[in-house]
């Protein structure tokens, strides 16, 4: 490049056509360079009002800790937008910026789709559908709602049928070529994904097995991820609604069958407990930028399930039938996971208190023991008895009390003696300084109590 601007080059010897051809060749080489940064791509977040879209985006942004990440907008907006870097975990290089578009779950804001899904960015998009585990009776209904809206809106874009067919074929191809990282023994194949640098069967010549029954019967033309949020509330469902493992297995089975129809991946996540958040980020980068992905499926822990697109099938789902005792696998979802007619109120346990007479008897016993115990000057006590006495003494003012010359007593002990002596109408004097009795006989002990409390 430096030689092009050298003084030794005689521009007069080259014709304008040759100079234009030279620059054209240089620009073509740059455009074909493998070091060129990938394009920015979009993640479309869909879910109901309380499905956790805001918390998820904030957690992903916090995970990368990038100063240039935009602050999360309030969900009352019809459409919010954030961006975060797509980072290659192997090299820690920033590849590009991913845009995260979040649409409100309110029905009045469905027109915001036109700003998220367009014909020119459809091939660069990924749909992330969030459903709320704290309300499991709405999961399937919510999934059907959002996938139907995406499908109808894509149809309304008027995309060329040939282009749309190419997008659908790419989704099918990526699903068919998935290879579990634990079984990956092929060369030129990225762990957990497709052959590196290829995006269609014509580029590889591989023989692909046909899709199974009920697999990708609904093809949106873009990758789909189903995200079950708030899985930390499963224990609450067990306590409040008597959910058992059988119900959770049936929910998982129903969601996995739905994911098969759309060729979708499945994540169980918890922002509160930070479960599968980092894994979700890496999988999104893998699907959008075709980077290697080395994590296999996980179906052991019920609150952190991960199933990548292409791993699941009906035979694997059928294993869950062994755990269904009172539920039929083909029963309607709404018939099994019903909306509760009432919510169990959370009642705080009542404090266990003694009756007044029993309390006063215990107080009298304590006073008798106290009067028989010799008093010594000790450090201020921090036990609960002085604190209890302070609270009781602040609500009642005794008629009379002992003189305030008890220099050898603790502040708490003096207050206890004053209160209980006044309560039982007993009069007493301090043996240490009897001369103060005549001086203080006309005064009450209320000022001493307030002074002690202050």
What does this structure look like?
By secondary structure, the chain is α/β, with parallel strands linked by helices. The chain has helices at residues 16-31, 53-64, 113-116, 139-156, 161-176, 234-241, 245-262, 277-289, 314-318, 333-336, 356-372, 384-395, 411-423, 436-440, 446-453, and strands spanning 41-47, 79-88, 93-103, 125-132, 224-229, 265-268, 306-307. A 7-stranded mixed sheet has the order 2-3-1-4-5-6-7, with helices on both faces. Strand 2 (79-88) and strand 3 (93-103) form a beta hairpin. It is elongated, with a radius of gyration of 37 Å.
| Residue share in helix | 25-40%
The coarse silhouette is elongated
- Strand order, largest beta sheet: 2-3-1-4-5-6-7
Q: Ranges with pLDDT <50 over ≥5 residues?
A: 1-11, 66-75, 187-191, 194-198, 381-407, 426-454
Q: How many angstroms does the end-to-end distance come to?
A: 84 Å
Counted by DSSP, the helix tally is: 15
Average pLDDT metric: 76
């Amino acid at each position: 490049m430096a030689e092009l601007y050298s003084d030794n080059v005689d521009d007069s010897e080259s014709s304008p056509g040759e100079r234009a051809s030279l620059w054209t060749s240089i620009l073509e080489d740059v455009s074909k360079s493998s070091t060129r940064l990938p394009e920015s791509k979009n993640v479309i977040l869909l879910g109901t009002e309380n499905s956790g879209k805001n918390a998820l985006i904030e957690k992903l942004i916090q995970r990368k800790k990038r100063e240039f990440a935009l602050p999360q907008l309030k969900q009352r907006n019809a459409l919010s937008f954030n961006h975060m870097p797509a980072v290659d975990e192997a090299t820690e290089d920033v590849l590009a910026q991913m845009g995260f578009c979040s649409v409100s779950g309110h029905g009045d804001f469905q027109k915001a789709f036109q700003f998220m899904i367009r014909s020119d960015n459809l091939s660069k998009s990924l749909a992330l559908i969030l459903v709320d585990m704290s309300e499991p009776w709405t999961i399937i209904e919510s999934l059907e709602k959002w996938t139907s809206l995406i499908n109808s809106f894509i149809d309304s874009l008027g995309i060329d049928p040939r282009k749309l067919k190419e997008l659908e074929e790419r989704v099918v191809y990526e699903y068919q070529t998935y290879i579990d990282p634990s079984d990956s023994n092929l060369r030129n194949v990225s762990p957990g994904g497709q052959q590196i640098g290829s995006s269609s069967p014509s580029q590889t010549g591989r023989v692909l097995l046909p899709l199974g029954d009920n697999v990708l019967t609904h093809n949106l033309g873009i990758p789909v991820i189903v995200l079950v949020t708030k899985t930390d509330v499963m224990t609450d469902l067990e306590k409040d609604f008597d959910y058992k493992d059988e119900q959770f297995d049936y929910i998982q089975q129903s969601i996995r069958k739905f994911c098969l129809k759309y060729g979708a991946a499945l994540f169980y996540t918890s922002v509160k407990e930070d479960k599968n958040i980092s894994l979700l980020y890496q999988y999104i980068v893998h699907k959008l930028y075709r980077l290697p992905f080395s994590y296999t499926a996980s179906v052991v822990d019920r609150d952190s399930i991960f199933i990548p697109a292409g791993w699941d099938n009906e035979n694997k789902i059928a294993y869950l039938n062994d755990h269904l005792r009172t539920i039929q696998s083909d029963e309607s979802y709404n018939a099994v996971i019903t909306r509760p007619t009432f919510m169990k109120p959370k009642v705080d346990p009542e404090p266990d208190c003694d009756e007044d007479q029993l309390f006063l008897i215990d107080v009298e016993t304590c006073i008798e023991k106290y009067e028989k115990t010799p008093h010594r000057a000790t450090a201020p006590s921090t036990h609960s008895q002085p604190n209890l006495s302070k609270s009781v003494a602040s609500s009642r003012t005794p008629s009379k009390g002992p003189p305030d010359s008890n220099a050898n007593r603790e502040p708490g002990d003096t207050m206890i003696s004053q209160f209980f002596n006044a309560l039982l109408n007993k009069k007493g004097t301090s043996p240490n300084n009897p001369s103060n009795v005549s001086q203080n006989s006309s005064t009450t002990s209320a000022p001493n109590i307030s002074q002690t409390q202050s």
